[in-house]
Design a protein that fits this description.
Helix content: 55-70%
Number of strands: 5
Number of helices: 16
Largest sheet: 5 strands, mixed
Strand content: 5-15%
Structural class: alpha/beta
Shape: elongated
Strand order of the largest sheet: 1-2-3-4-5
Distance between the termini: 63 Å
Length: 361
Amino acid sequence: MSLLDKAAKVTSSGGQSHVMALLNECLDARNAEALVATQRLFEDMYDGFTLNTEMKMPAAYCLLAWGEQGLECMMESVRRTPTIKNVSLAMQILASVAAGEKVIRIQWIFSPEMHERVFASVPDWGAVARAARRHLSALVLSFPGDDDAAIAASSAITFLSVSRSDAAKSLLVALATRWLAISTPTLTAYADLIRTSPDDEPLFQSFFEKHPQLLDPMAFQVWTKPDLHGFKEPDFVIRRTDNSYVVVEIETPGKTLMTAASQISAQVTQAVAQSTSYRSFLRERFAEAATVFPSFQDPECLVVIGLEEKLTGGQRAALLHENQHRAALKIVGFDWIASRAAAIAQNIIESRVDVQRIRMV
């Protein structure tokens, strides 16, 4: 009987002793079939058996024997079968490995011999730890909202905090990155909005109200269409975490950003004029503005209009020139907003500050 057939049989009618025996066979083989069989032993819900954690956890740990490939399989299982138990077990393993914990102490499930077998099988613990940090951050960012992420992580944090403070810290740090990064479902929804509703400004206004960090990753307080004494209202005024301010004027992705002659369009000119007039209004009434906007400072301006992906090389160079020669004002496309958010998320997933020395010669 193949290892996959045995895995199918164990998940349908076996007990913990059968799982452990099969995991030892898989560790003996350590080939592609053994990896898939181990993955199934982790992913399967064992027909809803209440104590299935005792079968699933050893399998999750044994996936480490295949190094980074094993972690990829773990993440594949979580995406395919995102039950609370699967997500929690994945978070526990990823957080522990990310924290540099090479032997996960669960004596009530594992024998010392199995610990040693997995420990000795991991090809490169350093590479696996780096991969675990990436996967943990990506998993945390995969949830649509903060509440979803917190609920999914709660049982893992409870388990880890009992005796693994470093592992619990790894998970808490991953959760904290959601403050700076936009979740994957939100980026997908934003891309869909650009594609399906390129001329619906109220829809984008509403979307940015729900996800203001798309407009500025350091957004701390956001005012939407504030009434400036009856003066034309800006779409957003944003206070950043460093107390700097930015006035945001949004148009729509369907509007023209640059003309065929590589000049900013009339629509951009109008939006820029509106944005700078808001800024001038606030600067002229600085003392009054400071009573409404905490720690108010001379604001920058951001105009979001059109799509940069449609620009030619010459048009891109012209837009860059415009931005370089305008003080405290930046003109960007709606897709630029998405690209920046995706880059922030990816860099956070890497989760390390890379300090280097370099010399240009």
